[in-house]
Amino acid sequence: MTDPMAGPTLVLTAAVAVLFATGFHLMLQRSLVRIVVGFMLLGHGANLALLLAGGPAGSPPLLGGDDDVEMADPLPQAMALTAIVITFGVTAFLLALAYRSRLLTGEDEVQDDVEDRRICAEERADPDTWTGDPVEGNQEPARQDEPPDEPPDAPPGDPSGKPPRGDGG
Predict the structure, then answer these.
(1) pLDDT band for position 1 (50/70/90)?
(2) Which CATH number do you get for residue 44?
(3) Alpha-carbon distance 47 to 166, whole Å?
(4) Is the pTM of this model over 0.70?
């Protein structure tokens, strides 16, 4: 005999997969609104996964009820309710950040960090510190196990080079 919950469980599992895949795809976009919508879809997928993990519906989890029907597990429902509240709060915060960014920059896209690009270009120019870039192809990285060629200028602690006093002051 087949399980009557096999059909809905399979459909809900597919819905969780679609929500997670779409949410991750949208979060990788550069538009702030798409990032917020992707976060919301991830939250909905997580809530659905929590309710799906609770198993089939049963009688209300109250004492003194029908003994012949198995009670529903209240823990996944409580976790889903908590996740809904947390997702709502984080979504409101992300929307406020997106609105503020829109007011300051006049556009919805996340900009490249110029300072990160400058540091990366400097590291590429110096072959001794270049460790490879995982995004643009990991070209031959520099060896990190070699000792430094120069001794440090000052002892650790005080940048002036004076030895620390023993009286604590």
Answers:
(1) very low
(2) 1.10.287.3510
(3) 59
(4) no
